[in-house]
Specification:
The complex is a heterodimer of chains A (253) and B (449). Chain A has nine helices and twelve strands. Chain A is α/β, with parallel strands linked by helices. In chain B, the strands form two sheets. Chain B has an eleven-stranded mixed sheet, with helices on one face. In chain B, strands 2, 5, 6, 8, 9, 11, 13, 15, 17, 19 and 21 form an eleven-stranded mixed sheet that branches. Classes of the chains: A alpha/beta (253), B alpha/beta (449).
């Protein structure tokens, strides 16, 4: 059984329009891969499809997580099996406190009849919040309700740290962050890097990759991976722009 | 101090079926009541007889199912026979840390316990307060002139009320812990008339939790309750009506009036889970500079239940504020009606006033009616009102599911959160927890049926 998040020839459409057109990508455990691409190339669609959003229909291909068919599972099952998506636009859940939300998410991972140790839970949460420079008042506040853009993204990383997934996809986690928040978020991700965990970092800008240094960089265009390289590819893209890739593609077509 | 009152010490209503339209339903003729109170009862009875029944053409009863209202079928409540069991129930449900606890069943006091009242505070059943502190009661009792349609109910209440609680916190007296009151009702068409009169004088504070419950499931008891909440200079009153009667049977009319003086704050909340037909009227006067009143409601309505709520936020001085947040979660064929009016009286400049009603529709057959209103007669005023109705969004459920929470549990968390949004605005961790658990219990009962 391969220890990877393995996407093979993935085709997916929304309302009859095909967005992913045969995307293949393998993220071995322990590696950080980045996907860069212009707006509309299908980056966010890829993350939603992997998480199981019902608006997206997978028409062909597969996604396996450590050999297990991810697409065959319900949304919540995927999460409990170790898949995590940090949302680009995290939802607000009024009236549900951040602490209760995290507790419910962890509780859902326990066998029936087993209860979370509240003391240990709070201790763990507080230490992780400290690492993300999050004020303790966020535990009592409603999930993302009235949070600034940066606070929402930090909250996503807190959830990731609490749920300790095997594979995490970060969907444009850098968008809307100032440089200080970006550093804090990146630091949170870097602390989670381990031989036991794989990351897929989706971003439009190279800036994030200064702080979360990827092992592999992919360029996505029109629903496919069109170029793969090391971290220097991100710098090249930043310097030459996405037109460089599209022109190169046109030349070889 | 703890006592269970015996039958003959209780305020006892006339036995048997009182012919309501033949004589005023004055309870307990043996009790020595002040003359002014007897006069008030008699005058109220006369107004009750004179007033028209609520009618379809009355804007205050728009959307209401008037077939639910039938004065002619009411009879006087008889003493409950399982008093000990009711007291045990009440004790199990109250908050742990309370100042005093009073239990009434069918208009009669059946239990009282004073745990922790500060010096100078008065906390007595209203009939006893009439005898011992008649002058203070007289100054504040049922002084409301405005009405949102419930005049006839209020007149009957005035003629008949002799149960409920009188709380008086004199200047600077902080009754920190909540005062808990249970009002049990039962028996088909038997009517109870609980009244709460709470006064927080200058810089004093009072918090009251009024529970309304049924003695047994499915009986068609009638509750016509009222509350007068008064806070003067810097005084604070919090009043929570926790109505968890049987889902089928009881009809409940609750008419509350609040008056806030200079820099005073009143919080008036309705949590409704039970009752077959419920009418809440909440009249709120911000009378002097700095007065602030908050009105919250959380209602979980299912089956064929109908909740009808009417509110008035009347700003009568400069720099007054008010905030209203009503939340309805509707299931099955349930109906809700919300009609709210903000009135900024002439000269009440620099008013801040908000009014929001949100409906969460859990069924296609549920019906939520909202009628927000604004009348502004002043300058430099910030007012907003709004109402929304909708279902839980798929995106919210997706977000929770993406964290491993199963869809059904996600749906429930979001609904509970929706209700909690208004409950969480109250003061007192134990009060909020108590209310939240009740709401959770009703959600569980809807799930398990």
């Amino acid at each position: 059984m391969s220890q990877s998040l393995n996407i093979k020839n993935l085709h997916a459409s929304v309302e009859g329009t095909e967005i992913l057109k045969g995307l293949s990508l393998e993220i071995p455990k322990g590696e950080v891969h980045a996907i860069m691409g212009p707006n509309g190339s299908g980056k966010s669609t890829l993350s939603k499809v992997m998480a199981g959003h019902e608006d997206y229909e997978v028409t062909e291909g597969s996604v396996h997580m450590d050999g297990v068919d991810l697409l065959d599972m319900d949304i919540d099952e995927r999460s409990r099996a170790g898949f995590f998506l940090a949302f680009q636009y995290p939802h607000e859940i009024p009236g549900v406190s951040n602490a209760n939300f995290l507790r419910a998410a962890l509780q859902a991972r326990l066998p029936k009849g087993e209860e979370i140790d509240a003391v240990a839970f709070y201790k763990d949460m507080y230490s992780k919040m400290d690492a993300l420079s999050m004020d303790r008042k966020f535990t009592a506040r409603s999930v993302n309700d009235g949070f600034s853009g940066g606070e929402k993204k930090r909250n996503e990383i807190l959830q990731m740290m609490m749920l300790e997934p095997h594979y995490a996809v970060l969907d444009e986690t850098d968008s809307g962050l100032d440089i200080d928040a970006l550093k804090i978020v990146a630091e949170g991700v870097n602390r989670m890097r381990s031989p036991e965990r794989g990351f897929l970092v989706i971003t439009h800008y190279q800036r994030l990759l200064d702080y979360i240094v990827p092992d592999v960089v992919h360029v996505m265009f029109d629903g496919r991976i069109v170029k793969t390289g090391d971290k220097s590819l991100a710098l090249e893209l930043e310097a030459k722009g996405y037109d460089w890739v599209t022109e190169e593609l046109a030349a070889t077509a | 101090m703890s006592s269970t009152l015996s039958e003959n010490e209780t305020a006892v209503a006339a036995e048997g079926s009182v012919p309501w339209f033949a004589a005023p339903p004055v309870h307990d003729v043996a009790l020595e009541l002040p003359e002014w109170y007897r006069d008030h009862q008699a005058a109220s009875w006369q107004s009750f007889l004179k007033l028209q029944d609520p009618g379809r053409s009355d804007e205050n009863w728009r959307f209401s199912d008037l077939r639910k209202v039938r004065f002619s079928e009411l009879i006087a409540a008889r003493p409950a026979d399982n008093v000990e069991a009711l007291v045990q129930r009440a004790k199990a449900e109250r908050v742990k840390d309370f100042a005093a606890h009073f239990v009434f069943a069918n208009n009669r006091l059946i239990y009282s316990e004073v745990a922790d009242l500060p010096e100078g505070a008065i906390c007595l059943p209203i009939n006893q307060a009439l005898a011992d502190h008649g002058d203070i009661v007289r100054e504040h009792f049922m002084k409301e002139d405005a009405s949102l349609g419930g005049e006839k109910f209020l007149a009957l209440h005035g003629a008949a009320t002799l149960s409920g609680l009188f709380v008086h916190a004199p200047k600077g007296c902080d009754i920190e812990k909540p005062i808990v009151v249970h009002n049990f009702s039962g028996g088909d068409f038997q009517a109870i008339f609980p009244h709460t009169l709470a006064i927080a004088e200058d810089n004093a504070s009072v918090s009251i939790m009024d529970f309304f419950e049924s003695i047994a499931e499915g009986e068609q008891s009638v509750i016509i309750g009222g509350a007068d909440l008064i806070a003067t200079n810097g005084g604070r009153v919090q009043y929570v009506s926790m109505q968890d009667e049987s889902d089928s049977g009881p009809k409940h009319v609750q008419i509350n009036s609040s008056r806030a003086g200079r820099d005073a704050n009143i919080v008036s909340a309705f949590v409704n889970l039970g009752g077959s037909w419920v009418r809440n009227e909440s009249i709120n006067h911000m009378q002097e500079t700095g007065a602030d009143i908050q009105i919250f409601s959380a209602n979980l309505v299912s089956g064929k239940q109908e909740y009808d709520q009417r509110t008035l936020q009347s700003h009568e001085a400069q720099h007054t504020t008010s905030d209203l947040l009503f939340k309805n979660a509707l299931y099955d064929e349930a109906r809700t009606i919300f009609a709210g009016l903000i009135q900024v009286q002439p000269g009440s400049h620099h008013t801040d006033s908000y009014q929001t009603c949100r409906n969460l529709l859990g069924s296609e057959k549920a019906e939520a009616n909202s009628m927000p209103g604004l009348e502004i007669d002043a300058d430099q005023v910030k007012c907003s009102h709004g109402s929304t109705s909708g279902q839980i969004s798929d995106e919210e459920i997706f977000y929770l599911q993406a964290r491993g929470i199963p869809a059904e549990a996600a749906r429930q968390m979001i609904s509970l959160g929706f209700m909690n949004e208004s409950i969480s605005k109250l003061t007192g961790a134990e009060i909020k927890e108590n209310l939240f658990e009740r709401v959770e219990r009703k959600f569980a009962s809807l799930r398990n049926r």
